[in-house]
Write a structure and sequence with these properties.
Length: 451
Amino acid sequence: MDRSKINILVVDDERGLCAGVQEALRREGYMVDAANDAGHALELLGGRLYNLVLSDVRMPGMTGLELLKEARQKSRDTLFILMTAYGTVPNAVEAMKEGAYDYLTKPLDMQRLRALVLKALEFQSVVSENAELRQRLRKRSEPSLLVGDSEAIRKVIRMAEEVARSDVTALIEGESGTGKELVARMIHAHSARADRPFIFVNCAALSEQLLEAELFGHMKGAFTGAVASKPGRFQLADGGTLFLDEIGDLPAKGQGDLLRVLEDGCFRMVGGTELIRVDVRVVAATNKQLQEAVASGRFREDLYYRLHIVPITVPPVRDRAEDIPLLIETFVEHFRGKHKRRRLQFSAEAMQLCQRFPWPGNVRQLRNAVECLVLTCHKAVVGVDDLPDFLRAHDRNAASFAIRPGMTLAEVEKLLIRQTLTKETSNREAAARMLGISRRTLQYKLKQYSL
């Protein structure tokens, strides 16, 4: 954080205190203005964007709470910390309900003030980074990972657009690397909540000890190290979308807490007594089979059905190989612009090899392979010899297969179908013709052999 670019406004009718706070924060490297009444403060707020305002609660004329309400109409991103005497703490608490970040009691503890200012700016940084990321994702080509002409991807896009029109909870299922987060962002971007926060939570990264505080926030003094109150992810996402990735890894306690919030929209911060209500759309994602987790007792059945209102399954790349040419073209254009490289084309043979490869890492693996080629291939046309070793090695290994005495007819059939789809053509209708069976029969056998 470059403190020289942080603008802070101090507002207090006590001129000595106001100047003292201004000087203390300037020594920390911040850009600090001061005003001795709310009218002057509003003039300054109209001419400059402030990261943070520290305001007295009781001032002649307009109060700190009234200033907060006026200021938030000019800039919803500006944070407020209120300074108040002990007798007016209830007013400060009321102001927090109106959107103030926190409050300080007088006489001021300068060490506490500096710590709280830093905490507020760190919080603001998280929110602003999220907003910038959302804008970058809209402007750049990342969402086009979901491009394609296959019916499988068209179905995903149609479902995402339908879900976006409502506030229903959605569960996105699919293997790692298929683009589940992008589907969640698409739902958010097409919804009425698009201008509100999109908050990402990786459930697998939350320890059971810190889970409740991360999701619901904590009050000052709730536990060792809680030097200031801190909002949780649900509060950060208020009015917007909360994306819970890897929901299948959520600990048992977290599952119960989440279910309760989904049902009534209310929770209490750790160490708090006040019931907080938020307006949040929850979108969850998983690469696990949640039904199996429910059956084994690792995932709550009631939570599963609460999330599974509108399931969206993102297909793996191997099931939409016809989309690979368009995906490659999209990635080439994206990374060519990003890295300022020349335009690349894939030869027909190289493209066919890419379509035959099963891409266990899905879209993410394909994307990384294309970026590598954009950076390292100095030819105008990418040939088979320019492709990564793992692609060419797979193709050599798939060129033939051995039939051993003692194999069942089903095992031979499975190998033959796999070979035809990976080596000859990824088009299922064409593969069915080569095998002398109907497309419907091929579909049945793919399911039967888990291909």
